[in-house]
Amino acid sequence: MPVPGRICPRSGSPAVECAATCCAGECYAFSPPDSLFAEKLGFWGKPLAYAPPQMPPSFEAASSFDMVVATRNRLFSITPETEHGTAVRYLKDASLMLFMGRALQGILKSGSKDLIPCYEGVLRGKVDEDRTARLEEIISDLRKALPEKGSAEVQAQRMKGVFSLHMASKLRECT
Amino acid sequence: MAKSLYENYKNFPKTDCGYCGNTSCITMLRRFCSGELPLSECIYFRAGLYNVNEFSCSPPVPRGTQKPSISYIRPCPTDADRISVEVSLLPPEGSKYGYFDMITLDNIFNHAVPGLRISPSLGIARLESEWGDVMGFSEGRVLIRRASNESSAFWQLSRFVRSLWAAVS
What we know:
The complex is a heterodimer. Chain A has helices at 15-18, 59-63, 67-76, 84-110, 116-123, 129-144, 152-174. Chain A is an all-alpha fold. Chain B is an alpha+beta fold. Helices cover 24% and strands 24% of the residues of chain B. Chain B has helices at 5-10, 25-33, 43-46, 102-109, 150-163; strands at residues 69-76, 79-88, 116-119, 124-129, 132-137, 141-147. Chain B has a six-stranded antiparallel β-sheet with strand order 1-2-6-5-4-3, with helices on one face. In chain B, strand 3 (116-119) and strand 4 (124-129) form a beta hairpin. The longest helix of chain B has 14 residues, at 150-163. Chain B starts with a helix and ends in a 6-residue tail after the last helix. The interface between A and B is large, with 61 and 57 residues.
């Protein structure tokens, strides 16, 4: 069970982003905000079962899929009747969609076609620790390269694609 | 002159690229404002596309001795048949910027949810519905008005804060 009041070293990130930075169950991000008055809520019917999110099957399909709307809908799936474990899964789903949406934007704007197989791997839910390690290497290389005025925007967009994929890949490992 | 977090954010790159190691530009900006990180960690500042001197913000105000509480349950001032409830949620230990990150909320919901209005500059979110009006403040205070009874009020509160869960920081 999460420990209310504990905070991870990544403090400052909102829960939907912090959920991707570690798998620690005690992270503040996984503590329901209504725990203060949980005993006043009573019983509101039978708990709703977890329903997996509808994700696009490929990079091409993702290009015409509105991840922002999907993220929003996932967050609104968390109701007072949602059990804690299911609510945390919905929050992680929303986090995944948020980072997949950002990754898509970064890949398209920087023209980083080399990241497409990686993107599709994360979309399919395949857990691959080598992929996460490869992404970390690319992130490290991008940070070592000195940005110049003329190329910084493209570099930032590629970084956005890689970094967001890395976050999404880590989320797949945690769920 | 020091600007608010939101005023600084409006002029920030907002790419959320992760070059600085933070999950978003708003997190980077928060860390800059609290003195944890220099803006030179950001690729845009490092490349000279943005000027460090154009950004300055007040350090975060300490949270003080705020405690989680249900402040009151009483008849609504404008309708004696209905009730008002106010609760104060507890920000995580060490959190410097209150409970709800209204800038992130605004980015995610972006006027797309009927009845939900968010003001990142004022740090307020408001949800209007037929069951009652709920207002949430960035520091963690949540207020419901015109609820038909106590159990309905707490259900609405729960619905509201769970919808905003993503922005707990």
